[in-house]
Known about the structure:
Largest sheet: 8 strands, mixed
Radius of gyration: 16 Å
Structural class: alpha/beta
Order of helices and strands: EEHEHEHEHEHEEEE
Helix content: 25-40%
Strand content: 25-35%
CATH architecture: 3-Layer(aba) Sandwich
Number of strands: 10
CATH superfamily: Vaccinia Virus protein VP39
Strand order of the largest sheet: 5-4-3-6-7-10-9-8
CATH class: Alpha Beta
Number of helices: 5
Amino acid sequence: MKNNQNLTKKIIAGKYKGKTLKLPSKVTTRSSKAIVLESFFNTIQFGVIDAVFVEVFSGSGSVGLEALSRGAKKIIFMEKDREALKILHENIAQTDPSACEVISGDSFINIKTAISKVKSLHVKGSSDGNTYLYIDPPFSVREGMEDIYDKMIALIAEFPHELCEMLIIEHMSTLELPETINLFTKTKTKKFGNTSLSYYN
């Protein structure tokens, strides 16, 4: 088995800047590139402060923990893979576990649980109304993932538009996502080689 101890990345900015996060095996998950993360956080800027941040298919949790470092109030991680979950919990332990919640299992099934938790946070006043939904599904070129984007669009359609400040999808650049998904409208797509970010409001 390949030794994964050298697979790491650092938190770029904020309270936990410089913290080293472990990454799961590249066979298991695909980590967001630093240039993609920097572009994303440059786009949302101070909007992340005091927000709820939901990272679907979170892997190591690098996006959600970057959001936490930059001032997000609550992070909800969604992940299925056992190795990734173990590393995710280790990474969370380096930051603020009380601000993080992990929903383990199939994200397509558990999206209703995530919605319920977001609604609860809004009702309790734990958020100022800003919720960011970051979705980074396995690329469809992986075996068994051919229908991943169809399932992802169905998942997005379930998320209440009124609860979401912004929806972000990290995807293959060759994929053309629809202009609208339920009440969400695509505002822009930024390309970074084989990876792109599409933004919906």
